[in-house]
Design goal:
Elements lengths: L12 H4 L10 H10 L6 H16 L3 H10 L5 H8 L6 H8 L19 H11 L6 H13 L1 E3 L2 E3 L9 H14 L6 H10 L10 H4 L7 H16 L7 H13 L29 H10 L9 H9 L7 E2 L17 E2 H14 L7
Helix pairs in contact: 2-16, 4-5, 7-8, 7-9, 8-9, 9-10, 9-12, 12-13, 14-16
Length: about 350
Amino acid sequence: MAARGEGPHTAGPLAAGAGQDVWLWHAGVASVIMRVVHDTQSVAAIDGERSSLCSWLLEGDPALRWQVMQDLLGASADAVAAERALVATTGWGARLLAAQDADGLWAGALYSPKWTSTTYTLLLLERLGLSPSDPQGRAACRALWQAARPYGGGFTLAKTVREPETCITGMLVKLAAYYGIDDQRIDATVRWLVGQQLEDGGWNCESIRRGSVHGSFHTSITVLEALLAYRDAGGVVPVDQSMAAGRRFFLAHRLYRSHRTGAVVDEAFGRFPFPPQWHFDVVRGLEHFRAVDADRDERLSDAIGEVRRRRRSDLTWPRYRPYPGRYWFQLEPRGASRWSTFRALRILRWWGGTRPHA
């Protein structure tokens, strides 16, 4: 059922000479590509490389194509919607939906095993862009909320956890907001999440279990994503101040460094597998700042430099080894990664202040 391991090495588009003429190209993404190529290359070489790279991205799964069209190429809303609709019927999204159990769950489980349980499959489908109104997605999300065990304002789905779990509660709120679940408990749950914020602006699952007083990078990005999804879905509980404090927590750490020593907290933060599961990394952190179109704060420049440094010589970014666990199937083989490349280019375009336009 679940696939493990890695496939053969795959060269990037430029090394392989891949690519057909691009149907659409705009100054926003072109300027990003221009900044990452070598200064010594000719204009003709640069034009050929950026055209090949864009073609290569568009040759990916519909779940990736619609996001490239929307966030890098500025395609029309109708074209993006048509491509996004394919997520449910073609490629990765269709394969995940086909694996759903008759009772609406995946792998017969709520939270574990990682990463084939209902929680993590729904999170992946959300990142792929499954329609929020998809009946299979909505049914599974309702099943999660019906099965979640309440504890003191929060929830848990883990069988071994008998107390409110901040990360799991954040995931539940994010999924409910995305899939449009109408549950009278959601607003109170958001208030509980806001109330769990620590003095430094972060959140930490261990604050309940062990009394931790310092924010966790992993928990904090999970809650920030949940609060943003809730707000954007029209939630009535005010969360802007809480989110602003959460971003200040990350800025105080230059996104991924110790606020005391300046050292990188975990070298793994510089790698960005897709999907990120519950883990923090520099791209996931920067994606939140991009999502709210935050100021281009100098304290994020180290993380931007880390993203740039990870670029390969063929202008792509690599596929990082997935987090250990069970997978329904492998999204990409080793080598150049469309997901890594798209996510990095989207971040760099935001940092450079350019916007896609039709």
